């Protein structure tokens, strides 16, 4: 029987690729999606489709309303930045950063891992083509592993937790190329921070721009449905 791993699945390009990699590594994935009050909640529906298409039998959805915390354009009444250059994206932490989001998500994944008897966690953070989020850095991932040993019953009893971040050193183009080799259907995924009511991508937010650039550089057709008149 395959060893279990908890995979954080948002329904986006990165987390979907990460799920495919976990399966390729021989793990039986337990997928965890978080409904945190994000304005792009359409990603949760995409996550369900992705998990089903990849034959995942155990999918959990946890609701944590981060709108009560606020402080981010993804959870608060703050405009999502549009049409920014790569140079603009490289300066400062953008307003789309959700305070301590990955620390919270990994903590929930850690709790689930203890319950299902897993010691491996997968998260699709990327430290190359990303918008400057501090909780996407390798230093954060390693420090979380240290914390996991100290904060869990399994850890103090001798279990060793491993947080896999296989996309960390890859460009968006390299991520897409790796996913294509693993048979990922990127048409099922959603990356836009500010979709319309039909779930179509805006084509102008940082996430859309980085995604489109990745497909172009990977030489792979972009299956994303963008809002009419934007792209």
UniProtKB/TrEMBL annotation:
ATP binds at residues 9-19. Pfam families: QueC. Pathway: Purine metabolism; 7-cyano-7-deazaguanine biosynthesis. Its cofactor is Zn(2+). GO terms for biological process: tRNA queuosine(34) biosynthetic process. Its EC number is 6.3.4.20. One of its GO terms (molecular function) is ATP binding. Binds 1 zinc ion per subunit. InterPro entries: QueC (IPR018317), Rossmann-like_a/b/a_fold (IPR014729). SUPFAM superfamilies: Adenine nucleotide alpha hydrolases-like. Zn(2+) binds at residues 192, 202, 205, 208. It comes from the Bacteria. The keyword Transport does not apply. The keyword Cytoplasm does not apply. Keywords: ATP-binding, Ligase, Metal-binding, Nucleotide-binding, Queuosine biosynthesis, Zinc. It catalyses: 7-carboxy-7-carbaguanine + NH4(+) + 2 ATP = 7-cyano-7-carbaguanine + 2 AMP + 2 diphosphate + 2 H(+). Belongs to the QueC family. Catalyzes the ATP-dependent conversion of 7-carboxy-7-deazaguanine (CDG) to 7-cyano-7-deazaguanine (preQ(0)). PANTHER family: 7-CYANO-7-DEAZAGUANINE SYNTHASE. This is 7-cyano-7-deazaguanine synthase.
